[in-house]
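dude i think i finally got it to work??
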Amino acid sequence: MKLSLLHIVFAVAAAGASAAACSPPTVSSPPEYAERPISAEAGEAYFLRTGGGDPYATGMAYPVFLALMEAYPNELGSDWNAFAEKFGFLTDPNASGDPSVPPIGFHLTTDPNTSVPWLVGNCQMCHTERIHLKEGDLLVSGLGNKAARPHAYANALARIGASGSLNVDRLTTLATKRARAYKVPWSETVARPIVSAMVNGLALLAKKRARYIDRFEPALPGRMATIESFAVALNDYRDKPIALAPTTGWAKVPDIRSFPFRETFSYDGSGFGSPQALVLEADFLFGARPEWYLSHPHIATSMYLYLKSFSRKLPFPKTVDRTLVAKGKVTFEQVCSGCHGFYVDHGDEKRVSYRERVIPKNAIGTDPARVDAVTEEFVNASNELPLTRGHARVRNTGGYIPPVLLDVWARGVFGHAGQWPSVEAMATKESNRPRHFIVDTRGFYDLDRLGVRYEESSARPLRPGEYLYDGDKPGYTTGGHTFLADLDDAEKRAVIEYLKTI
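look at this
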């Protein structure tokens, strides 16, 4: 979920800015989004740096966002370091703590119509993680960020829009001051039209999202209400809002390491069809307009090629017991490989034999809220949408798709909702699994239990970077997937040792 949740705001702001610049209020196409040969290399650039594009619909004029941070420090943080701290985004290690440098996942692009820099998001905002190790931190591209709080970020913007304190004159003054301090173009010709449209658009956005703020507020770090977010976006195409399921279908931000082996890309495979459409369907949610991708078809295809060829070397950073690994491999292939695939070393490459399949929710026994969020009304609304017809469709699959387990040692927390803090916790009998525990997102990664550091407690005050997991809450229950838990202790230990090597 990127800044583009404000796509209504940005589209209106862009119209005002473009009109002031005597340009058509349609599309801003900076040079980095210009047509180029379709390739995985180009897709990598979109993933890591520029994002999917359409800045007027998925971005914000940079001076305006800087002004909002100054005007609403309690909501957004007063500078980029405070912003990253508040919402769990990763500061750029190359910035050396400079509070004027945006976090990883944000890109500045120059709007050719106004010469104003616009802030847009890219995939690394949620799909890059820092693993904290005693030997030194690992910054891992593609791994789900376990601390990111995109719903909190979106709600903060909505509260700003609903506050009634947005003032065009003050915001214009602040944006002008910040533009000068940051030495970015911001002429009087475009300043007031952009700010005025921004104020009106934020208020409109707040009104449209008002009914959902309380629903999204409890989101834990690293989790998204994916289906519900799509439902909110679909409401723009409907006469009345889509009724949501009673329980929110929380899901953790996934690692994209599995994508080369998948035909669908969600935990339940609910979206299917054209892989290019599936790869960038989230950008439509984030505000990218259909006309943008019609005029920039190379982006979706290049992004698909990059994800389809995505590879990463992330070896386990400690010595493993090779005798135990060999025993664990035998047990894994007997018990687990039917769902999670076979893994064979071929030189320095790990080859995978895997077939995507849906395991019925009753058979796997994990919390059903995420798959149940795909209601009949949501399915019908999605499939009636003209812009996706013939490209992608939605269904309720009735279950979850077992993931490919490459680099699984680094993926904690585990489960589609992040319901198990470690592999060891998942391998524990259901009745003995931790249900109320405090996760330390900044602590050293636990290489022995394979997961995040956690403390079984719900009483003490939380420190910065910590959150409480309550496994008694619907959507977050910790039962199911007992296949590893049903093994004897020696077999469990061997399988866990083997998992370190995948």
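Residues 422 and 451 are 4 Å apart (CA to CA).
im so relieved honestly
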